Amino acid sequence: GLALQCQPARKSVDMTKQLNPDEHYIRELADEVVNTRQRFLGGSLIHDTDGIWTKSVYGECDGFSFGTETDELYRVPDEEKKEKALIVYASQNGTTGGTTKTFAKHLCKSLGGDTYCDLRNMSGIMAKDLAMYKRVYIVCNTSGLGRPPCDGEVFYSHVQLEAMRCKENIEDLAIGDEEEGKPLAGTSVAIAVWVDSSSPDYAKFGLGLTEELVSLGASTALKTITVDEQKVKLEQKQTFKEWESTIIEMEKERLMASGPRRRTSKTIATSAA
What is the band of 167 on the pLDDT scale with cuts at 50, 70, 90? Predict the structure, then answer.
């Protein structure tokens, strides 16, 4: 969809009348991603060979401009991070989209519901939201050729830009303890991504997202897993269940180590349903 942006500027005529609904939607999504990249990068932009708008190294301005102060990702002290876990889901239109949301909700319920977790759609958050939590669990799928799903396009673009900015800052400031100075230091992540193994680069988004978050200072609580859509539903569910069960055990151990907590009617499940 982003590759459509390399075409000449649109004429004054209403292009929506010449596009089918799917193509019109793709153009709108591409516009949203490009505008977000422009807002965070600033300066001159070029269209690279991957169909992505990026900052030109030959541009007129030096460094990065990241919009307003509220947009900026910064290091949140551990004592200020939320004790709740953040569960994020992202989906593409279609049957798998409903699947990822369903499994994310199941994980939330297994961990004790709203008392212990916040459940968010990836389309409604930015990288700075992750910095507010100590633990982040992401359940998502990928679109064709390893691209992010619709819900994750803008978020992934933002994470990529923040990773570029973080690298620039560390190099420019010569920070001694690089990991402690990174904005997602103190946040651990675990990612489960639904993929179609029949497509080239089917795991690219999930692995790429993991790498970008780690480059921002996050640690990995678990190795990123892929759930293959080519497998039967029962096998997909079993793969996710194993990942979920490990998370449940980690959360239980964390609660036991942290000592007594206020009484609540909701408790962490002993195993995934």
Answer: confident
Q: How far is CA 271 from CA 104, 151, 241, 264, in A?
A: 15, 29, 9, 19
First to last CA, the chain: 38
- Measured from the Cβ of residue 139, the count of other Cβ atoms closer than 10 Å reads 30
Burial class (CB in 10 A: 0-12, 13-18, 19+), 6: exposed
Residue with tokens 């509220």: 70
What secondary structure letter does DSSP report for 203?
T
Could you tell me which residues come within 8 angstroms of residue 157 by beta carbon, excluding any fewer than 6 positions away? 33, 36, 37
Residue in the structure block whose two tokens are 């988004």: 205
* Residues 223-265 pLDDT 10s: 999 999 889 999 999 999 999 999 999 999 988 887 665 444 4
Query: Helix 153-173 vs helix 21-41: angle between axes, to the nearest 10 degrees?
Result: 20
Tell me how far apart the alpha carbons of residues 140 and 97 are, in angstroms, rounded to a whole number: 8
For the entire predicted model, the pTM comes to 0.70
Q: Report how far Cα 270 is from the mean position of its chain's Cα atoms.
A: 28
pLDDT at 199: 82
DSSP β-bridge partners for residue 121: 89
**Alpha helices (H) in 76-232, listed in sequence order:** 95-110, 127-130, 153-173, 178-181, 204-215
Q: Are the CB atoms for 133 and 184 separated by under 8 Å?
A: no
Share of the chain above pLDDT 70, in %: 64
